[in-house]
Amino acid sequence: MYRKDPDTDMAAELTWDDAEDVGIALADKFPEQNPLEVRFTDLHRYVTELPTFTGDPKLSTEGKLEAIQMAWYEEFQDRQE
Predict the structure, then answer these.
(1) Half-sphere exposure in the Cβ direction for 30 (13 Å, CA)
(2) Distance (Å, rounded) from C-alpha 77 to C-alpha 5?
(3) Any idea where the domains of the chain sit in the sequence?
(4) Rounded to two decimals, what is the model's pTM?
(5) Which of 4, 51, 1 is nearest to 25 (CA)?
(6) Is the dihedral of CA 58, 35, 17, 50 positive or negative?
(7) What is the second-level CATH architecture of the domain 19-80?
(8) How far apart (Å, rounded) are the C-alpha atoms in residues 14 and 2?
(9) pLDDT by residue (tens digit) across 4-21?
(10) Does the pLDDT at position 59 exceed 60?
């Protein structure tokens, strides 16, 4: 379990297992991007380039990328309302 950033209530260090927090971070960084239009190769790069991402790039899986994409999409939809 990672410590939380008191200003954002998100994990201070993100890994592949933090799909919800990674999704929020991606929605913050790419507010106009529909996540369902992002290829997994690009999604992998976006995640690993997040400043708080500390996970091993080699440990991603299709399932983890899908979970991140869905969390990002949920956040994207919430912000469209």
Answers:
(1) 18
(2) 24
(3) 19-80
(4) 0.86
(5) 51
(6) positive
(7) Orthogonal Bundle (1.10)
(8) 8
(9) 555 555 567 999 999 999
(10) yes
